[in-house]
Amino acid sequence: LKRKLVRHKRQDFFFKASARTNLVLQNSGMTSATDYTEDTLFDGRIRCLQHRQGYRFSVDAVLLGNFIQPKPGDRILDLGCGCGIIPLILAYRWPKLSITGLEIQPNLTSLARKNVELNDFSRNIYPVRKAVSDASGEIEFFVSRNRKALYLEHQLGGSSSAGRARDAYSEQVRVETVSLDEFVDEEGVSRVDIMK
After folding, report:
1. Higher pLDDT, 130 or 32
2. DSSP code string of 94-141
3. Nearest residue to 48 (alpha-carbon basis) of 72, 18, 70, 27
4. Mean pLDDT score of the chain, rounded to an integer?
């Protein structure tokens, strides 16, 4: 019964999304609002849009965002920021941080940018669509369209699904790569205090 109540409450909340959330979605050209959920942390002070299907943050991101103890003015680099949940938590808890989040998936980079806008953290958080590599250039990678099926295959079969990257379950994506040194130089970053 509790699961049903939570699920029902979440769906009701989603359809009563705030006017600001609806405006952010509408102005961004993102797909239907029913493709997203709006989750909250810190008694609703942080709002986080997530895709209804696919990657969703879980307790590990929330724990990491709460265990880090930065100093005011610290520069943080989040490699693989996803929807931006860790930068959101950090910017809420320590408003004087500067956080750059790198993400290679276009839809998650876009979602991170929307979450920054939704929470008015554009002075603190900078989502960037790039991959850190040993050299600058461009790489091709594959995003699984059916994460659950590939995850189950890996877990039950005991072997990696990496060899099946180019199949009906994946989408080919290209992303710019940059070495960490070059990225820091390009962004004018004098130092990185914390990197995830």
Report:
1. 130
2. -TT-EEEEE---HHHHHHHHHHHHHTT-TTTEEEE--EEESSSEEEEE
3. 18
4. 77
3-class DSSP assignment, residue 17: coil
Backbone conformation region of residue 158, classed left if phi is above 0, alpha if psi is from -120 to 50, else beta:
left
Question: What's the angle, vertex CA 16, arms to CA 15 and CA 19, rounded to 5?
Answer: 120
Residues 6+ apart with CB under 8 A from 173: 104, 105, 106, 140, 141, 142, 143
**Structure pTM?**
0.74
DSSP 162: G
**Mind listing the pLDDT tens digit for each residue in 175-189?**
999 998 898 888 887
Cα–Cα distance list, 76 to 31, 50, 174 (Å): 31, 22, 25
